[in-house]
C-alpha cells in the first residue's frame, strides 16, 4: 500500500493529483492547499482525502510527498518533509535562488532522505532516446546542443513579477536538458534578451524573448532560446549535433510550426497547446518513477544536486543579461 501527499493544488498540483490518482501502485492520496475550497473540490474529483494543513498531511502516514506549491515555499516544504524522513518530489526549483538551493541541498544530503526534482523532459520518450544516442557514442563527439522553449502566451504578470525572471522560470528546463544530454558541466554563459510585448516585463527587470550560449567543459556549445509569445502553440524542441550524426526531439506532428516548403506538409498538427498536453506521458512516467522512490527505490530523474547546478546556470544567465557580458559559472558560485 502506497499513499502519497500533494502539497499545493494550483495548476501543476491539481494536474499531478489527477495523474497520481490513475497510477498503478498508488493506493491513496492526501492533499492540501491554503484554499480549503480548492482542496475539497480536487479531493472530490479524484477520490483523495483533503486535510487543512501541511502539518496534518505530514503526520498522516504518507509514504511520499509531492511539493507543488508556489516556488517561494519549495525549500521550507521540502525540508519539512525530509525532516520527517518522507521521500519527496519537489517541482523545480528547490528554492528561489541558487545560494538557497545549495543550502537546502546540503541539508537534504545530510538527511539521507531521497528527493526527486521535477524536470519531466528527462522522461519524454524522444528526449530519452536522444540521451541514449549520446551515451552509446553513435553521434560521435558532441559539438552543439540546441534547446527551445516558447510559450503560446505569457503567464499572468503577477506570476512574472515573482518568478525570478525568464532564466529561472522557463529556461531552467532547457538548462537541465542540455546538461543531462551532453553529460558535461557548463563553465560560461552569455545571455541576451529583449522586451517586445508587455512593457511590464521591463519594469520587473525581465525579458519576454531570450537567447543563451552555454560553453561546456567538454567543448560542446549549448544554444537555448526562449519566448513568451508563440501563439501557434507550445514549442519545445531539442537538437543534438555530433561529429558523426545528429538527432532531434520534439519534431513531432504537433510541433507548432508552419512549414512553407511546398513539397513538405510536415507537421500536420494540431499543434501542442501547452506544456501539460505536450508532456502528459512524461509527467506520468516521472511520477510513476517517484512512486518507486516512495517504496524505497533510487531516484531515477533529476536529483537535488542536478537542480543546484541548473540554478547556478540560471543565476549566471541572469547576471549576463544584466551586465551584457559572458559570465563564468564559478564567478556566481563564489560571489
TrEMBL record:
<dbReference type="InterPro" id="IPR036291">
    <property type="entry name" value="NAD(P)-bd_dom_sf"/>
</dbReference>
<keyword id="KW-0560">Oxidoreductase</keyword>
<dbReference type="InterPro" id="IPR055170">
    <property type="entry name" value="GFO_IDH_MocA-like_dom"/>
</dbReference>
<dbReference type="GO" id="GO:0050112">
    <property type="term" value="F:inositol 2-dehydrogenase (NAD+) activity"/>
</dbReference>
<comment type="similarity">
    <text>Belongs to the Gfo/Idh/MocA family.</text>
</comment>
<dbReference type="GO" id="GO:0000166">
    <property type="term" value="F:nucleotide binding"/>
</dbReference>
<protein>
    <submittedName>
        <fullName>Myo-inositol 2-dehydrogenase/D-chiro-inositol 1-dehydrogenase</fullName>
        <ecNumber>1.1.1.18</ecNumber>
        <ecNumber>1.1.1.369</ecNumber>
    </submittedName>
</protein>
<feature type="domain" description="GFO/IDH/MocA-like oxidoreductase">
    <location>
        <begin position="127"/>
        <end position="243"/>
    </location>
</feature>
<feature type="domain" description="Gfo/Idh/MocA-like oxidoreductase N-terminal">
    <location>
        <begin position="4"/>
        <end position="119"/>
    </location>
</feature>
<dbReference type="InterPro" id="IPR000683">
    <property type="entry name" value="Gfo/Idh/MocA-like_OxRdtase_N"/>
</dbReference>
<dbReference type="Pfam" id="PF01408">
    <property type="entry name" value="GFO_IDH_MocA"/>
</dbReference>
<dbReference type="Pfam" id="PF22725">
    <property type="entry name" value="GFO_IDH_MocA_C3"/>
</dbReference>
